[in-house]
Design a protein that fits this description.
The chain has 263 residues and is an alpha/beta fold. The protein contains 10 helices and 15 strands. The protein folds into 2 domains: 59 residues, Arc Repressor Mutant, subunit A, CATH 1.10.10; 184 residues, 3-Layer(aba) Sandwich (Rossmann fold). Helix content is 38%, strand content 24%. A hairpin with a 2-residue loop joins strand 2 and strand 3.
């Protein structure tokens, strides 16, 4: 019979695996942890009681709201709201009518969607909030990518979403992320990164839209090198050293003014 310490160590490992992957099936956890399915089920039940995961049919998804993890959409929408709106308007100016645009999920990309609503565009997105917003009008054609819907974010992820993205093409991709450091852009888990990487593969131009609070931060999963990004759009809250670093990159830098008085 395993000791209490052994059980706790195994559950910590299970939690770490789920934090990295976002979602894992029972079969995957059984194989990696080298225990029975019934044991994994008990571990997931314990982790769910701790508020770390949510059990699903055939597996579990990581949901803990801590640094580097995905917060509920409504909660994140109020964080740096003015900055995100300014970024949304600036990105919208880069998009020409008649184009096919891929839109990533998240609150910054939602502000981009608000800024382009009603325009003659073809938008492909894996985000339910964005699809709902844009589908209310007649001018914008919306293609919604399906898949596993990540809890509280309304974003479709997983292999099904990746396969569907591979079937489309966009002139531009607008994506956001959880952190940007000198070694690249990062996001919350590998499920998110998997779909975003596929979006990058089918787009002619990649626009990274991030508010100033994301710089100097990393999250669990590395998304890409900044050399793979064509345009970086941020707000005027970015500090001097960070701005100079961004200006040294190959990507075009756009600083969105949050007020009319901003330079």
């Amino acid at each position: 019979m395993p000791s209490e310490g052994g059980i706790e160590d195994r559950r910590i490992k299970a939690g770490e695996l789920l934090a990295r992957q976002g979602f894992m099936s029972l079969a995957e956890l059984v194989d990696i942890l080298d225990v029975s399915e019934s044991t994994v089920r008990r571990d997931l039940e314990a982790l769910e009681q701790q508020g770390l995961v949510r059990r699903t049919h055939g597996g579990a998804v990581y949901i803990k709201d801590t640094g580097g993890q995905a917060y509920a959409f409504a909660d994140r929408e109020t964080t740096a709201a003015d900055e995100k709106q300014a970024i949304g308007r600036a990105v919208a100016e880069l998009i020409s009518d008649g184009q096919a645009v891929l839109l990533d999920g998240g609150t910054t990309c939602y502000q981009v969607a608000r800024a382009i609503a009603g325009r003659h565009l073809s938008v492909v997105t894996n985000a339910l909030p964005i699809a709902s917003l844009l589908s209310g009008g007649m001018s914008t054609e919306v293609t919604l990518i399906g898949g596993y819907v990540y809890p509280r974010t309304g974003v479709a992820l997983g292999s099904m979403a990746e396969q569907q993205v591979a079937l489309v093409h966009g002139s531009q991709l607008v994506l956001s992320c959880a952190g940007v450091a000198e070694d690249g852009a990062y996001n919350q888990n590998e499920m998110m990164v998997g779909v975003e990487r596929q979006m990058m593969a089918v787009a002619d131009e990649v626009i990274l839209a991030v508010d100033h609070t994301k710089f100097g931060r990393r999250a669990v999963a590395r998304l890409c090198d900044l050399s793979e990004v064509h345009v970086i759009v941020t707000d005027d809250g970015v500090d001097g050293p960070t701005r100079r670093w961004l200006e040294s990159l190959e990507a075009r830098l756009i600083i969105a003014a949050t007020t009319e008085e901003s330079p």
